[in-house]
Specification:
By secondary structure, the protein is α/β, with parallel strands linked by helices. It contains nine helices and eight strands.
Length: about 220
């Protein structure tokens, strides 16, 4: 049985896309830029807030990107749970892992303050051993530094760890960290991206993650 499961956040545990899109559109609008339909945002997320803003406004200067990020965070900090919601079956899966004694952690490219706030709001009953987001001075995924940080807090043999995410970035992160990985089909990326990244497993329900961990779900 696995001893530790590391989860991506956006597109894996939670559908956060509308809140992200609304806050990005708000920031763009404040500076007179055109906004985007919310349906476009799944193709812009995955590399942290800076990458999101750069994709949403590709001709903005680095200084303007900084300004948009500031406005985005001010808005998102107050609206990041407005419409976001856990995917179906996520709560049951996390509780089953908890009850089986499997430790769980979060590794996200979202900035740390928002990750902490969102996890506390949606999963107050889940004892995550580490909840990590983007932090100053640390490269974002697919750099595996965030995974190594989690393993430093919760030392676990790599063969006993499963990394779960919804994107090719997640699969590459796990591969760079030499961890068994699992791509989920309910997130923001098409299944073809997971296959193209050579995911070890691809699942369509949270219960399948339990089975990969050696738990009857």
């Amino acid at each position: 049985m696995k001893k530790l499961v590391i989860f991506d956040l956006d597109g894996t545990l939670l559908n956060t896309i509308n809140d992200l899109g609304q806050s990005c559109n708000y920031a763009l609008q404040q500076l007179g830029y055109a906004t985007h339909p919310l349906s476009a945002y799944p193709f812009m997320v995955g590399g942290g807030v800076r990458k999101l803003i750069e994709r949403a406004q590709p001709d903005a200067s680095p200084e303007t990107v900084d300004e948009i990020i500031t406005i985005f965070k001010q808005h998102y900090d107050h609206h990041n749970t407005d419409t976001s919601t856990p995917y179906s079956g996520i709560h049951d899966m996390l509780r089953a892992l908890r009850d089986a004694g499997v430790q769980v952690a979060v590794a996200s490219n979202k900035y740390q303050e928002a990750v902490t706030q969102i996890i506390s709001h949606f999963f107050p009953d889940i004892p995550f051993v580490s909840v990590q987001g983007q932090q100053p001075g640390r490269n974002v995924k697919p750099d595996p530094s965030i995974v190594f940080s989690i393993l430093g807090i919760c030392p676990t043999p790599k063969q006993d760890v499963l990394y779960v995410g919804d994107s090719a970035v997640d699969i590459e992160t796990a591969r760079r960290a030499c961890l068994e990985n699992c791509g989920v089909t309910w997130g923001f990326s098409p299944v073809s991206h997971l296959r193209g990244a050579y995911a070890d497993h691809i699942v369509s329900t949270p219960a399948e993650i339990l089975r990969l961990c050696g738990i009857d779900g």
